[in-house]
Amino acid sequence: MTIYFIRHGQSEFNAVFQGGGDPMIFDAPLTPLGFEQAAEARKSMADLNIKRVITSPLTRAIQTSKTIFDGIAPIEVRTGHHELLSHSCDVGRTPAELQADFPDLTFDHLPAEWWHAPNGSGREVIREPTPVFQNRIANFVSDLTTLGDEAVAIIGHGNAFQEIIGFMLHNCQVHQYR
């Protein structure tokens, strides 16, 4: 089995966040540059023989997945490798909201609040504790052993991949994990 990690393209949050105050862009979508980065990454995917794509439910990851892999491999939405919740862009949307924007994908297996939302906090930005994040990522990595022998692309986020591989990927950077 070969697994490739791909960080999403530039999001609206990435484009404006300078390390100061949170610009309050919830579930940030891709910028035009983010779509260009994903389109460029698509060119390099043809030779990798990807048979399955797993994407985070955050909009920027879904948009990246669809731009790179539509018509190449089926796209499956999963939680576990979604971003560490530390800013507004990391707060997700309900399965119904995602389904309305991406009707060709399946979201009904996701809980209503699949992001870090303690005690039903919904769209509040409540930082995910590091041990909770690390446990979630460890469970995701453990589940990778069940994927089978096909080549898989996993579209996700900087902090999640950094927790797994030890360094930050650039937007739309491809990293062969296994």
Automatic annotation (TrEMBL):
**What domain of life does the UniProt record list for this protein's source?**
Bacteria
CDD domains tied to this protein: HP_PGM_like
What do the Gene Ontology cellular component annotations say?
A: cytoplasm
Q: Which residues form a coiled coil?
A: none
One Pfam family it belongs to: His_Phos_1
Where, by residue number, does substrate bind?
A: R7, H8, G9, Q10, S11, E12, F13, N14, R60
Q: What are the protein's GO molecular function terms?
A: phosphatase activity
What is this protein's name?
Histidine phosphatase family protein
The source organism is Litoreibacter roseus
